Amino acid sequence: MNCMKQPALFLASPLLLLGLSLLLAGCGADEIPASTEPREALLETVEILSPVTLPGSITALGEVVPDHRVEAASRLSAYIEAIPKKEGDSIKAGDVVAQLDSRDVEAAVRTASAKVSAARAAAKDAALDHEKFSALYHEGLVSENDWRKITLKNEAARSDLKEAEAMLAAAKAQLAYTTVRSPIDGRVARVLKREGDLALPGLSIVVVDSETNPKVEFSIPQNQRAEIQTGTRALVRMDGESAEFEGTIERTTESADRISRTTLARIAFSGEERTKAEARLKPGMYVRVEVKRSSSADASPWVPESVLTTRGGLEGAFVLEEGKAKFRWLRTGKRLGGMVEILAGLQGRESLINQPSGNLRDGSPVKVEKRSSARGDAVEAVEGDQK
Asked: Which residues form the signal peptide (predicted)?
């Protein structure tokens, strides 16, 4: 019985295999047209913007410097007894900034005063003798030799008196020098000595800066010096503050620093800007300086922020090339008024796709809906920030 069933199984197997193969062939025939038939590419409608070139500028870190700086020093050698002013204190012309030990000088004054008293008495006595012998000489009672001696004694006494008075005046002047005073109104910038130190002639004790008419000094590359001339307008800003001060280049140095290859420029303020600067800018402060360049031939292009997109964590933009969107990596700079400075990545005045969608890919075909330049209001905002 079992032997009779086995041939039936062997005969059914080829038929089953044939059916399965036909079924698989039918399925494959249905899928081939779907994979090989080309689909119609979807065109994305885009707006095209052109970058704009704005006047370039030179930015630098500047320092507020006083219009007048005085280093108050001693004119004699003496120990410092007191320095009544501290760094940052306001000061008026004539205020004491250092008091020196005056005991030695006071002794010299007393000595000189004594010499003046003695010389004055001797001169008075010599003058009386001269007057008395003058009458006798004219009456012929005194010889010519005696008269000559009396006259010389009187002149010597008067000369000694003048010398003693000069020594007293010098001693009193030295006494005045023991009190060091500020010659200007301003603020104590630095205290270089301490009480008990030895003050030496010509060595500064206290530095005083004037607070009127402050200036700003900054360094510029030597190759850009020709673009910054006297009278060029400059903007000064303080970090963390919106206030700005407008000044002009007062002067630039002719020679450059041998190490940094930079030259020094100074900004001055006038009118209302000077009043504003005097109220806010103090010597020693650091500020940001921006000066418009006279040439914009090598100025960087600016584009609206709306053309930027991020791919892989880096910023870039899509440009239009032969009807397709091509992605470009960009190196950006300053951002002002909704505009972005492009430092690298663009080649000339290329067509940029504004507000690219998330579906846009490198090489995607696009259809141009509108062409325009960068937004005028954004450009005005950038130029306003650079003024």
From this structure: 1-25
| CATH of range 102-177; options 1.20.120, 1.10.287, 1.10.1200, 3.30.70 | 1.10.287
Residue 157 CA: distances (Å) to CA of 124, 130, 137, 151, 153: 8, 11, 20, 10, 6
> Do 289 and 44 meet the contact criterion of CB atoms below 8 Å apart?
no
Where helices occur in the chain by DSSP H, the ranges are 2-36, 103-138, 144-177, 271-280, 376-386
pLDDT digits (tens, 9 = 90+) for 303-337: 788 878 887 778 888 888 888 888 888 887 777 76
Main-chain phi, psi angles of 293, to 5 degrees: -80, 150
The confidence score (pLDDT) of residue 28 equals 44
Q: How many CA atoms lie within 13 A of 310 on its CB side?
A: 3
Q: Are strands 339-344 and 331-336 parallel, antiparallel or unpaired?
A: antiparallel
What are the extents of the domains in the chain?
Answer: 45-54+297-386, 59-67+210-292, 102-177
Residue 366 forms beta bridges with which residues?
44
CATH architecture type of domain 45-54+297-386: Beta Barrel (2.40)
Q: What angle do CA 72, 100, 206 make, to 5 degrees?
A: 25
The Cβ of residue 364 has, within 10 Å, a number of other Cβ atoms equal to: 20
* The residue type at 157: A
Interval 101-125: pLDDT, tens: 999 999 999 999 999 999 999 999 8
Per residue in 250-277, pLDDT tens? 998 877 777 777 889 999 999 999 999 9
Second-level CATH architecture of 59-67+210-292: Beta Barrel (2.40)
Closest Cα to residue 266, out of 230, 238, 319?
230
**Single pTM value for the model:** 0.53
| φ, ψ at 39 (rounded to 5°) | -90, 150
pLDDT digits (tens, 9 = 90+) for 26-82: 444 444 444 444 444 556 676 776 676 665 678 889 999 999 999 999 999 999 999
